[in-house]
């Protein structure tokens, strides 16, 4: 009986079980289908994002290329401008060298011209005084003739001497020739062949020293003593010359060490002629460094002096 029941129920039980399994598979398939659809949506969204990113990358790359071209263009312009500025600088340097050379050449001629001008002024002054002297001489001759007729030949020499004596100007050497002057302030970074101007003239017997130019214009030929003193700061070196016209007649060199100021003095005995220019200048071949100076104050004067011996 049981066997018959089993045989009768078994087909229905297996069929129900199969139906239940198919139902689970269908649910899994539906779940998988939903997952697949979601993945498709995600892939689509990701593809859209990737496409957008690619477009942004292309756009950024194009912008970078444009910026690169702009920067390269600006760099080329800057290089061109730098090259032009270097050319201009080189041109100005050449012009500056030419101006310095011209300035040096001009300085060589300025002081002789000042000397010539001074001599011409003296000649002009003397020529302006000639008519008065001739009138005095004419008056003297008239007086001589009158007194000659009155007093005879015996008094002629005495009268001529008395009348002509005022026409002879006293010699400068009777009062002597001497000068002494010093710098009133510091002189910073003087150039080569720079004439030192000692602008404070304490002694100027004969008025032959010119404090505005630093030049002593010799009024009378003779033997003179000239002395010059210069003071410099620490870690400096200077070479100072005494010049007569264009000739170096004396040079003094001084070099100082760190923390020590010093001064040097030169003395020259020389025969000079009337009209010569005597002055003190820096050496033409010694380049003074920036910041170097020639000092002059109450603690030590840079000075220039001279006097005639005979």
In short:
The chain is 51% helix and 23% strand. With 310 residues, it is of the alpha+beta class.
Overview of the molecule:
The structure is a single chain. The protein is of the alpha+beta class and 310 residues long. 51% of the residues lie in helices and 23% in strands. The strands form two sheets. Strands 1, 2, 3, 6, 9, 11 and 12 form a seven-stranded antiparallel beta sheet that branches.
Sequence-ordered SSE layout with sheet pairings:
Elements: H1 2-151, H2 156-164, E1 178-182, E2 187-188, E3 200-205, E4 209-210, E5 215-217, E6 222-232, E7 237-244, E8 247-255, E9 262-272, E10 277-282, E11 293-295, E12 303-308
Antiparallel strand pairs: 1-3, 1-12, 2-11, 4-5, 5-10, 6-9, 6-11, 6-12, 7-8, 7-10
Percent of residues in helices comes to 40-55%
Largest sheet: 7 strands, antiparallel
**Span from first to last CA?**
177 Å
Overall geometry comes to rod-shaped
Low-pLDDT stretches are 158-173
What is the N-to-C order of secondary-structure elements (H for helix, E for strand)?
A: HHEEEEEEEEEEEE
Helix segment tally: 2
Task: Give the C-alpha Rg.
Answer: 54 Å
